[in-house]
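Many introductory courses stop at the sequence. We go one step further.
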Amino acid sequence: MDKAILISALVWIFPVAYAQVSPSFDVASVRTSPLAGKGGEGSTREAIEFSPTTLTMRDVTLGSCIRWAYDFKEFQIVGPGWLGSDRYDIIAKATDPVPLHRLRLMLQALLADRFRLAAHRDFRVVSFYALRVADRKPRLQPTKSDAPSGMRPSGGALEFHNMSMAELAERLHGRPFGIDRPVVDKTELAGTFDFTMKLAPNDAELKSSLERRESEQDTSLFIRPLRELGLKLNAERGPVEQLIIDHAERKHIEN
C-alpha cells in the first residue's frame, strides 16, 4: 500500500477507535438535589469532593458540573439559563484509581449519557480584565502550608491563603468582588501565595464597601490594593476559548 494512503487511513481509523473506548464510571447515581427543594440558607451551597476512585457532587448545578468536567471557568460556558438553577446530587465510582484528568473525561461521558449533553469548543472575542504584574517583584509570599486555598476577612482586609493567580482571577469575577466582566490571569506567576488585600479600616466598613461596589459595578475599590501587591487589572478585548452548549436535557436520566 502507498505510504501516503496508509497514513491517511490511520488518521481516519484512530479517532473512531479512540471514541469507542471513552472512559466511564463503573457505577453512577444522578438525582435531583433534595436540599435545593427545601430552599433557605444553604440550599445553594455546592460541594464537590473527589478521590482517585470516587467523585461526589452535592447540590450542584449542571453548569458547575460542566465547568468541572471540562475545566472551564463560568464565563467560558455559553448555554441556557437553567444550567445555573436546577440542582443535582451525583455520586460516581470507578473500580480502579484514575488521575484527575481522567475523572474529568469520565464526568463528560456521564453528562452526555444522563443529560444528553452535546457541546463544542470555539474562540470568541470578548471584553475582559487581564490580571497582570505591575512591578518586577510582586509582594506575594509563596505558600509554605498544605492547607486548602481560602479567603477570609480580617480587620477590614481580605486574607488569602494558598491562592494561585488563576484562582484570584476567578474570585475577582465572583462574589464578594463581582467585577462586571471576566478576569483572566495573565501574570505568568506559577505556584500559590499568601497575601492580604486591605480594602477598609474595619470589617463593618469592608462589608459596606463591597455591597456598595457590587451594586454600582465599580472596580476602583480594588485598583489601589492590587497595586500594593504589585498587580493590576487591564481592560482588554481578545479571543477567549469557550464551550458552546449545543444540547442539554433538563429532565435527566436517573441511575
